[in-house]
Design brief:
Blueprint lengths: L5 E2 L5 E2 L9 E6 L4 H16 L7 E7 L5 H15 L7 H8 L2 E5 L5 H13 L3 H5 L1 E5 L6 H10 L11 E6 L6 H11 L8 E4 L6 H11 L2 H4 L7 E9 L8 H26 L8 H14 L8 H4 E7 L1 E3 L2 E3 L17 E7 L9 E7 L6 E8 L8 H4 L7 E7 L3 E9 L7 E9 H5 L6 H11 L5 E2 L1 H18 L9 E3 L6 H8 L13
Parallel strand pairs: 3-4, 3-6, 4-5, 6-7, 7-8, 9-14, 10-20
Antiparallel strand pairs: 1-2, 8-19, 9-15, 10-13, 11-12, 13-14, 15-16, 16-17, 17-18
The structure holds 6-O-phosphono-beta-D-glucopyranose.
């Protein structure tokens, strides 16, 4: 993240030193896939519309099916109508943008495809369009190694050549530590780590980026951000959607690998890391790794005390009947794969010693929401015991990541009237109310950062590997153990009873995120 520089009359610090994106070509491998039409092309179109794309650029889609440039453009136009975040597509803008889209037919295992790609890139004429190359691997991870090797042999990917070449990859980054290491080795066989940009789309979310801004630009909160003031922290990422058509993938992944290994641990790291020395990518990523390494390992024998799995059975979400997980397509009828997971983690460092961090995520829950709740310690029970007994609500700060993006602070206030009634009230900051409805898609930000070459919002190799270490030992603890009755939950409820038990052991309970509308 480049430095924040000037301050305008409203007190906002504007980043004027940001490096603009240089002319480049983005090559998408696996261009016939869903990700390209649903996320990547709409993101690039919006960047173009908002004048954020470099002064000259090309986008090349490489895939196996026979298509022409025009037929690919037509297909993408239809998809954009469906996936554009800003309402109807502007035809004039689209036509200008689409002139930069090219299709290259080829099988990614075939060296001839890379020769054709090389010729196409050379035909673009200007040096930066041939040399500044962003390769987006929207393919299976098992194909990453092949693509990187073939690009290298076609002289399209160099460690220290002219211009710059970068590789962008999506999760899953392996399915355990060993496979993640092998994948990282394949990716860096012909590149440097600094050329690899691993996407966790949560880091592209405006509200997730705001966690560091909020923490380190406000003295009032940061001095409370430690074991002296914080009782515990809850991180909830709940989804109303079930597994649906992704049963095949989910049977292999489960919620722990699909959500905790990446999104939840990333949010946890941002919420709890120490201030970085600077806003440079390496400085921030060093602190995140340090934090992940400070998480107390959960030994397989302790998994039952600190981690709860869950799996939904048939139920109702928003009045709509949902099948049980075991009845979803491509799911085994006796599957023990978790669609929900809740964990209690401890961070063994000076700041957080003894403070529990409760994390949970699940499918087919009553609302879709992502929220971090910092629950502060209660005041001494001396003054208001008569009015509130033991139940006076402690202060809490909720960072609302999505939807209804914002932050609210919960504190106690006097109920108007002659009695001394006390009850919780809230102060609420809403992004919409403050900044209007500017909500760029995570992919817009991430693609732009990859073009600029700023790796802050991407995951470094050691982050991925440290996160797998945490997850692997939990999986080891589950091995061969079927789900118990207390680990099933009806679709449309807040997860299994066992997840309530996990918090109840220490007198805590889950705070349901507020539904704003
Ligand atoms: C993905 C997971 O990484 O994140 C999905 O594979 C999940 O299972 C999705 O639904 C959630 O992302 P978001 O942005 O909708 O919260």
């Amino acid at each position: 993240m480049p430095a924040l520089e000037s301050s305008d009359s409203s007190g906002s610090c504007l980043n004027e030193s940001r490096k603009p994106a240089e002319p480049c070509t983005i090559v998408i491998f696996g261009a016939s896939g869903d990700l390209t039409s649903r996320k990547l092309i709409p993101a690039l179109y919006h960047l173009y519309k908002d004048r954020q794309m470099p002064p000259s650029f090309r986008v090349v889609g490489l895939a196996r099916r026979e298509k022409t440039d025009d037929s690919w453009r037509d297909e993408l136009r239809v998809a954009l109508d469906q996936f554009s975040r800003s309402g109807p597509v502007d035809d004039k803008v689209w036509r200008e943008f689409a002139k930069n889209l090219f299709y290259c037919q080829g099988d990614l295992t075939d060296p001839a495809a890379y020769e054709r790609l090389e010729q196409l890139l050379t035909s673009f004429g200007k040096a930066p369009l041939r040399e500044n190359l962003l390769f987006y691997l929207a393919t299976l991870p098992s194909q990453f190694g092949t693509v990187v090797e073939k690009l290298h042999h076609a002289d399209l990917l160099q460690k220290d050549g002219a211009g710059w070449q970068r590789i962008v990859v999506e999760k899953p980054f392996g399915h355990d530590l060993a496979s993640a290491r092998a994948l990282n080795q394949e990716l860096t066989r012909f590149t440097r780590e600094s050329q690899v940009f691993r996407i966790d789309h949560y880091l592209g979310k405006e509200t997730v980026q705001n966690i560091l801004m909020f923490r380190f630009s406000n003295s009032i909160f940061e001095r409370l951000w430690n074991r002296d003031a914080v009782d515990h922290v809850q991180i909830t990422v709940s989804e109303k959607l079930g597994v649906g058509q992704r049963g095949g993938y989910y049977e292999e992944a489960g919620a722990l690998r699909d959500m905790v290994q990446n999104h939840l641990l990333q949010v946890l790291a941002l919420v709890s890391m120490e201030p970085p020395g600077s806003l440079e990518a390496e400085s921030i990523r060093d602190e995140k790794v340090k934090l992940l390494k400070s998480i107390r390992p959960i030994r397989p024998a302790d998994v039952a005390k600190q981690v709860v799995r869950g799996q939904y059975f048939a139920g109702v979400v928003d009045g709509e009947p949902r099948p049980g997980y075991r009845q979803e397509p491509k799911v085994k009828s006796d599957s023990n794969v978790e669609t929900y997971v809740a964990l209690k983690l401890f961070i063994d460092n000076w700041r957080w010693s003894g403070v529990p961090f409760f994390l949970r995520t699940g499918k087919n829950l009553p609302v879709s929401t992502s929220e971090v709740r910092i629950q502060f310690r209660p005041t001494p029970r001396v003054l208001f015991a008569a009015q509130c007994g033991d139940n006076m609500d402690p202060n809490a700060l909720a960072l609302r990541l999505q939807p209804d993006e914002g932050i609210y602070l919960r504190f106690n206030g006097k109920v108007p009237g002659i009695s001394l009634g006390v009850r919780p009230v809230r102060m609420h900051f809403s992004y919409d109310a403050e900044f209007g409805a500017y909500t760029p898609e995570a992919y817009e930000r991430l693609l732009l950062e990859a073009m600029v070459g700023d790796a802050t919002l991407f995951i470094r190799r050691d982050e991925v590997e440290t996160a797998w270490q945490i997850v692997d030992s939990i999986r080891e603890g589950w091995q061969g153990k079927p789900l118990s009755n207390r680990e099933f939950y009806a679709a449309g409820t807040w997860g299994p009873v066992a997840a309530d038990d996990l918090l109840a052991q220490t007198g805590h309970f889950w705070h349901e995120p507020r539904v704003m509308r």
